[in-house]
Structures are given as structure tokens and as C-alpha cells.
Design goal:
Layout (H helix, E strand, L loop, with lengths): L2 H16 L2 H9 L3 H10 L4 H13 L7 H13 L3 H11 L6 H12 L3 H15 L2 H10 L4 H13 L8 H13 L8 H15 L7 H10 L3 H13 L7 H13 L8 H14 L7 H9 L10 H7 L10 H4 L10 H18 L2 H13 L3 H13 L2 H23 L1 H7 L2
Length: 418
């Protein structure tokens, strides 16, 4: 073999040996997985190289997907206190029969400087263990990291074990999350913007501000925010009314089969309104009813069918209330609009001549904080015969008495007696 060829081979080998882990990471990010694997395997005792090998086997990047092999590399890297390895492997172990090791690794990763680990730990406590205080503590350790701020807002909105609801603080944390985005989680900005927009729409945690709500859903476009933006355009909330454009947007989202979680009730309610009124589409009562039936009683869907039905904007009327309208004891972002909806139901029942139903529905609205409902209840009583009014008040006092007894636990004890 000529000497010059031996020299070329030697230089090539030396160049290969000279490549370090950062070169492997560059190759990995460029999706040159074969070269990345060769470099990482050449530095197989390095914690960072072990982390990337774990990822490659976990996701099948340049190698056959092999979770067992991935776990081996994760364990080696985490054993060297590599923060990202501890976080990723710890998060994986949270779904194991014994999540305690995962909790420990995430806490160690957080202490090593990875705030994402505290966010993962917080969501574990929030959604799996349902422990508000532990979740809040974990999120707060994450400081101003995007997911930690968003998680803190969710805990403060819902409350939980040893945590009181604080809507005002929740709103502030969501604003802070948008101000501290994580480039790797840009898709989550839409969720934060949507939820914060509803805060402003319904006056949760502060004054109602429809203009700010529309600005949020316009600034962070996605299927969820586009659906809500169209809703606001259709009704003229915080933006000039553009009914035709709103219906066209809803039709695009529907035909594109775009995945919706939070905003689905707005889509189906909006299309039900469109077909019921003939705005943007040909009037079709059958389609209006079919879209109304698709509104699930979650999120905004807990009040939209009843609110729109009582106002004659979709099929159904006020008889829907017991099927689709609910309320809880704790304040939430929909509390004010739920109160208004119950009052609208009461007014609808009053027009139908169901004075007893109107009286009771207005009571729910009043309990939820609607001042006008108290005045309306007096007007309903005035329409009743003296006998009916007395019966309505007696029935209400019985219900109040049973409610008070149930809170003392007396009724539960009576039911347990043989």
C-alpha cells in the first residue's frame, strides 16, 4: 500500500478519534444518527453520550426501538447525576408500579438545576396523586420556568389538599407563563392563551376584559384558540362582529378534523347557532339539533346548551337545564356565567308558566351570586297564588333543613343504622 494512502487512513482515524461528545450532539440534532451513534459509543462512559444513546433507543432514532436498552443507558447516565437523564428517566418511572424512585430522581434533577423536573413532579402530584400542596410546592421550586408557572396557575385555580383557590394569583401566573415561554414547548402556549382568555371572558380572577381575551387567542393561533376567536367574532365579544367569517372558520376546523379539547363546546354550539339561524350556511333545523347534541357537558359545555337554548339561539329551550347545566360549591371560571344561565332558565320557565321551577332555578342563580336573581324570585312569588307561594317557601325550607342536616352527618348515620 502506498505511503500516502496509509497517511490518509491514519489522519482519518485520528480525526474520528478526535471527535468529542459535542460533535455527536451536533450530528444528532442534524439527524445524522449513524454518525452520532458512532461518536457516542466512542465515549460510552460519558454521561451526556449515555443520555443521547438512551434517547436514540427510546425513540428508535438510527437504531431499532428498544426500551430495555434505553433504560440501561438512562440508568448509567442518571448514575452520573446527569440532570436531563435523571429527569427523563424519573418521569418514565412515575408510571411504574413503584413511582417513588421516579419522584426521587426528579427531585435530584431539580436540585441539579433542571426546573423541568420540578414541573414534571408537580403534574404528577396534581393529576395522579391529586395532592394540591405537594404539587404547588414542586411547581414553586421550578421558579419562573414556563411549565412550573402554568402548573402553579392550575393548582391555584382548582385548589386541593391544603391549598385554597386563588383565582387572582392564578391569572397572574398564567400571564407570567406567557412571558417566560419554553422554545421546546411552543405548542403549549396555545393552551395557556386559551385558558387565560377564558379568565378574561368570564371575569375569573379579575375584571372581565373581552378585548384582552380576543388579543390572546389571536396572538397564539392554533385549533383551540382559533375556535374561541371565531366564537368571539360571531358574538362580537372584544372584536367587531363577523358572523360569516366565524362560521367559515368553524367549518374549516371541522373539515380539517383538528383535535380539540377545551374549545370543542364552542365549535358545536357555534355551528348549531349557525344552522339554526341560517347565518353563513343554509338554515337547517336538523343539523342545528345534531350539533347541539354533540356538545359534551364539560368545560364551557356545562352551560352553553342551556344559555343558548333559553335565548332561542339553538334548539331545545329551557327544558335542557337538568341534563346539561350543573354547578359546584367551589368558585370556578364559569361561576358567574352559570349564575346568569340559571337566571335565564328561570325566566324561560316563568314565561312557560312553570312558576315553581322558575322560583327554584332563580334560587340556584342567587346562591351562585347573581344579585338580579334575588329580585326575580320576589317577582315570581308575587305571581303565585297565596297557597302556591306558601308551598314553594315550605318546600324550600325543607330542602334547606335537609341540606343542613347532611352537612352535620346526621343523615349519613341514620342511613347506616340497620
Amino acid at each position: 500500500m502506498p505511503n500516502w494512502m496509509l497517511l490518509v487512513i491514519a489522519v482519518t482515524m485520528l480525526a474520528g478519534c478526535g471527535q468529542d461528545v459535542t460533535d455527536g450532539i451536533k450530528a444528532y440534532k442534524a439527524e445524522d444518527f449513524a454518525n452520532a451513534k458512532r461518536i457516542f459509543e466512542g465515549h460510552s462512559t460519558n454521561g451526556d453520550a449515555q443520555l443521547y444513546l438512551a434517547r436514540m433507543y427510546r425513540y428508535g432514532e438510527g437504531v431499532s426501538k428498544d426500551l430495555k436498552t434505553a433504560d440501561v443507558w438512562y440508568q448509567k447516565s442518571a448514575g452520573q447525576s446527569q440532570p436531563e437523564a435523571m429527569r427523563e428517566y424519573g418521569a418514565e418511572l412515575l408510571d411504574s408500579p413503584d413511582p417513588s424512585k421516579g419522584v426521587r430522581l426528579l427531585d435530584e434533577a431539580g436540585q441539579a438545576g433542571d426546573p423541568r423536573a420540578y414541573a414534571d413532579l408537580g403534574f404528577h402530584y396534581l393529576y395522579k396523586d391529586r395532592t394540591g400542596k405537594l404539587a404547588l410546592d414542586a411547581f414553586q421550586k421550578g421558579g419562573n420556568y414556563f411549565q412550573a408557572l402554568y402548573g402553579t396557575a392550575q393548582v391555584l385555580e382548582m385548589g386541593g389538599t391544603a391549598v385554597s383557590q386563588d383565582p387572582k394569583a392564578a391569572r397572574a401566573k398564567m400571564e407570567a407563563a406567557l412571558a417566560n415561554p419554553d422554545p421546546e414547548l411552543s405548542g403549549m402556549l396555545e393552551s395557556v392563551a386559551f385558558n387565560l382568555a377564558e379568565y378574561y371572558m368570564y371575569g375569573f380572577g379579575g375584571p372581565t376584559d373581552s378585548a384582552r381575551a380576543f388579543d390572546l387567542v389571536s396572538k397564539y393561533p392554533g385549533p383551540e384558540t382559533r375556535t374561541l376567536a371565531a366564537w368571539m367574532q360571531f358574538l362580537g365579544m372584544g372584536t367587531p362582529k363577523k358572523e360569516q367569517e366565524a362560521v367559515a372558520e368553524w367549518k374549516r376546523i371541522e373539515s380539517g378534523h383538528e383535535r380539540l379539547i377545551y374549545s370543542e363546546p364552542y365549535l358545536w354550539a357555534g355551528l348549531s347557532m349557525a344552522y339554526f339561524s341560517g347565518i353563513g350556511v343554509e338554515k337547517d333545523a336538523v343539523k342545528a339539533e345534531l350539533y347541539r347534541q354533540r356538545i359534551l357537558p364539560v368545560f364551557a359545555g356545562s352551560f352553553l346548551p342551556a344559555l343558548l337554548g333559553t335565548q332561542g339561539l339553538i334548539p331545545g329551550g329551557c327544558e335542557l337545564r337538568r341534563l346539561t347545566l350543573s354547578h359546584g360549591e367551589k368558585p370556578d371560571r364559569y361561576r358567574a356565567v352559570l349564575a346568569m344561565t340559571w337566571l335565564e332558565v328561570a325566566k324561560c320557565e316563568n314565561k312557560k308558566g312553570d312558576l315553581s321551577g322558575a322560583f327554584q332555578s332563580a334560587r340556584v342563580a342567587a346562591d351562585l351570586g347573581n344579585v338580579d336573581a334575588r329580585i326575580f324570585r320576589v317577582s315570581v312569588l308575587a305571581q303565585m297564588t297565596p297557597g302556591d307561594a306558601k308551598h314553594a317557601l315550605m318546600f324550600e325550607s325543607v330542602i334547606d333543613g335537609l341540606t343542613a342536616l347532611s352537612q352535620t352527618g346526621v343523615l349519613d348515620k341514620a342511613e347506616r343504622k340497620p
